Amino acid sequence: MTIDQAALGFGTGERAIYATNPWASRGRLFEEGGSLTRSEFQRDRDRIVHTTAFRRLKHKTQVFIGPDGDHYRTRLTHTIEVAQIARALARALKLDEDLAEGVALVHDFGHTPFGHTGEDALHEVLKPYGGFDHNAQSLRIVTKLERRYADFDGLNLTWEALEGLVKHNGPLLTKDGQGTRGPVPQPILDYCEIHDLELASFAGLEAQVAAIADDIAYNTHDIDDGLRSGYLTFEMLEDVPFLAGLMKEVRDRYPHLDPDRFTHEIMRRQITRMVEDVIGVAQDRLKQVEPQSVEEVRAAPMTIATFSDRMAETDKAIKKLLFSRIYRHPDIMRIRAAAAEIVTDLFTAYMNDPKLMKSHFWVNHISGLNDGQKARHVGDYLAGMTDTYAVRTHRELFDRTPELR
């Protein structure tokens, strides 16, 4: 993919006409005065970083459960890597870097303990009450569950930050109101009744670069962690031509490199090639669409910041490798089953006796709620748990707790 280097935004400080302008934000649900020292999107980013939800990410699983080792990615370190890549893409495309970083930092707030295993388990027990979706949960956290400010619940983020959070992977509705990826989670629909996030349009480019940065980050670091764990080997990487080419490139230049350095040299090249591919595609699509504002980006007939067809095939091949060798490995599946048991047990216990949720702010008001309302609060409480807190709490409530090793 060819990149127009003259059009890159490195070092210019210039914002493109199609970028989201923080000084022309659509504002916040609850009106606030402006800041003398920060743009609206800088304020969003800072509020996100100072939340309880952000701190909890350090003890939430990415792929490998915490006891497996200190050097594996957690949900927090994954988030930081996504934010770094998103900011780099935003700078290259002359976008608002603070908004791109903010969307990247908040995108995984709604994840449960134990990674996607916890999400699947929580969705299963919540099916009679509308199910569970981590993206919808992220929205609940930043609009309702964080309780820090005197004047409102949540963080009162700008419309653009909330739009990016909800729609970073594309529109949720078609023009005729049908869900693009199945039914839209009810918490998102409920919020849009009071603060319309325009679910049938694309998000701005800042959210789009955050979304593709997520793919780049976990494709790369899951390979890195997989090699560290022993579930992946360099020989297995040869099955993906793109990775095989990177390894040959490193071997040719550094024929006697030790394995740790060899891995890092592969990973840094992988990130670079994927980032450059996205920049090249975005530049080409911007020339096709010629948006004169962020509104025209939202109305575009396609995602602008994405992989080329060739890199998209590589992305699929990497995901296939990761699923077969790591995510579905018998050891990981055994741990997944144990983690799911913990989540399911806790849900049942809290539904039977909500008073066990001692630190949940709704616990003194939950007796008057119906089962659906009660289940949603139990879901909120469980989703907010870290891996360590979930295990510790299970040990307090049950005679036997499954081993996560």
Automatic annotation (TrEMBL):
GO terms for molecular function: dGTPase activity. Residues 75-219 form the HD domain. It comes from the Bacteria. One of its GO terms (biological process) is dGTP catabolic process. InterPro entries: dGTPase, dGTPase-like, dNTPase_2, HD/PDEase_dom, HD_domain, PHydrolase_assoc_dom. Transmembrane segments: none annotated. Keywords: Hydrolase. Pfam families: HD, HD_assoc. SMART domains: HDc. PROSITE patterns: HD. HAMAP family: dGTPase_type2. PANTHER family: DEOXYGUANOSINETRIPHOSPHATE TRIPHOSPHOHYDROLASE-LIKE PROTEIN, DEOXYNUCLEOSIDE TRIPHOSPHATE TRIPHOSPHOHYDROLASE. Belongs to the dGTPase family. Type 2 subfamily. This is Deoxyguanosinetriphosphate triphosphohydrolase-like protein. It comes from Agrobacterium albertimagni AOL15. The lineage of its organism: Bacteria, Pseudomonadati, Pseudomonadota, Alphaproteobacteria, Hyphomicrobiales.
